[in-house]
Amino acid sequence: METKKFDIVIIGGGNAALCAAISAKEQDSSLSVALLESSPRKWRGGNSQHTRNLRSMHDAPTDVLTSSYSEDEFFDDVFKVTKGQTNEKYARFVISKTPQIVEWAKKNGVRFQPSMRGTLHLGRTNAFFLGGGKSLVNAYYFTAQKLGVEIFYECEAVEIIPKENQVQEVIALDKARNENFRFQAKSFVIASGGFESNLKMLEEAWGECARNFIIRGTKFNQGKMLQALKDIDAKIIGDPTQGHMVAIDARTPKYDGGIASRVDCVSLGIVVNSAGERFYDEGEDFWPKRYAIWGRLVAQQEGQIAYSITDAKVQSAYMPSLFPPIVANSIAELADKINSDKNLQMSIDEAQLTKTINEYNSKVVEGKFDHTIQDECHTQGLEVEKTHWALKIDTPPFYCYPLRPGVTFTYMGVKVNMDAQVHRADDSLFENLFAAGEIMAGNILTQGYVAGFGMSIGSVFGRLSGANAAKVALKS
């Protein structure tokens, strides 16, 4: 087996891995750095290619963010979506570093666009990438290669070889040549994502219902390094059923539907299951703070399918999905069109749907509708109330988006310290092994999600892991 030697080996090819590679070279340009990306070049970047923004605190308006967004408010948002189940020290550490990340990204070729406005309410809290995540990935790859980072595409790390408290080498499969290589280094960074693309692992965690899940991102996040970490007695944390899971259009391809497959009109109408019944408050909070719970909610419904229904009044208030909505001039016609769509492989109870909408309409307490604030439009007297943005669904045409659970990334991963150093099962530390991105996001995220925070975590811990891996390599 051929051996390749570097000062630092980084496993992964998305945002966190690239931040680590660039950061390592910033410490000392003479360090030899290898980056192992399991995908072909055209699919490089992991889930980062599908992102649009990162969440950042700021004390005053910037060139890309409006107003202000304090550390305390940012943390409060994280605390709410995780229902208090977060590590405040780690979360605040990431939050405090986000302004630096935005400037660092600019320095390394990432361009941002003016803040976004509309139903997503992110103009104040999230910095948007000009050209989306693909542009960010391309900019970082360009910078990394300019700095001398050696990129290995279609190179999947499959095994970690330890010796006492260190990692000696990793075994990687060159998929193009179907040949294994040894990569030896003085330090290693694992930033290879979660296990969300591995359908077998998803089914082991969720049961047969996982067969109806759609993977929003890359098909290359197979959890190989998570298993390898288990094999060397790294400390694994997190619930395998928890992750970033959103409601996406049920007609989306199995993999790589990306951000365009998300359905953003949930808070503006009602959502029903195949029995025609509502099952959760669609107007609980602003969509960026609640969109990531809806995949899990749909996963709990029969057949893992639901339907988002609105009428003509709100069509200008949200961004359309990748697919056109199902449109009808009556609720009965809408149900008939849903039931005749063979691609959905499910039906909806027309009589119950009509009853649900009539009952909902009768309980709407009318007020001044304003989707940019938590308005006063709500229901009163329903088993499942809607607390904001409740309008009667009574103005044809009526619109429907069928929903399935869309998995973005999983939260089960490896425990790290504040230096991004990986813990062993006995809580001692590997001296030269670091982790960043989705594979360690469970140190902060245990459930729920707030838009753009995954990129914040990956960027901060990516830079940190690269810098600390460089320090170890320089001492060796």
What is shown here, in short?
With 476 residues, the protein is α/β, with parallel strands linked by helices.
Order the strands across the largest sheet as they lie in space. Answer: 7-3-2-11-23-22
In whole angstroms, the N-to-C terminal distance is 25 Å
For the sheet with most strands, the description reads: 6 strands, mixed
* CATH structural architecture of the largest domain: 3-Layer(bba) Sandwich
Poorly predicted ranges: none
Beta-sheet strand percentage? 15-25%
How many domains, as an integer?
2
The number of helices is: 11
Mean pLDDT: 95
Radius of gyration, in Å, reads 23 Å
Helix content: 25-40%
Give structural attributes.
FAD/NAD(P)-binding domain, 2 domains, six-stranded mixed sheet, globular, 476 residues, Flavocytochrome C3, Chain A, domain 1, alpha/beta, single chain
Structural commentary:
The protein is α/β, with parallel strands linked by helices. It folds into 2 domains: 2-238 and 411-475, 3-Layer(bba) Sandwich (FAD/NAD(P)-binding domain); 245-406, Succinate dehydrogenase/fumarate reductase flavoprotein, catalytic domain (Flavocytochrome C3, Chain A, domain 1), CATH 3.90.700.10. Helices cover 28% and strands 22% of the residues. The chain is built from 11 helices and 23 strands. The chain has helices spanning 15-27, 71-81, 88-107, 132-147, 199-206, 224-231, 287-290, 294-299, 331-339, 350-362, 453-475, and strands spanning 2-5, 8-11, 33-36, 53-55, 112-113, 126-129, 150-152, 155-163, 166-174, 179-184, 187-190, 214-215, 236-237, 243-249, 270-273, 306-310, 326-328, 364-365, 378-379, 398-410, 413-414, 421-423, 429-435. The chain has a 6-stranded mixed β-sheet with strand order 7-3-2-11-23-22, covered by helices on one side. A hairpin with a 2-residue loop joins β8 and β9. The longest helix is centred in the C-terminal third of the chain and has 23 residues, at 453-475. The two termini are 25 Å apart.
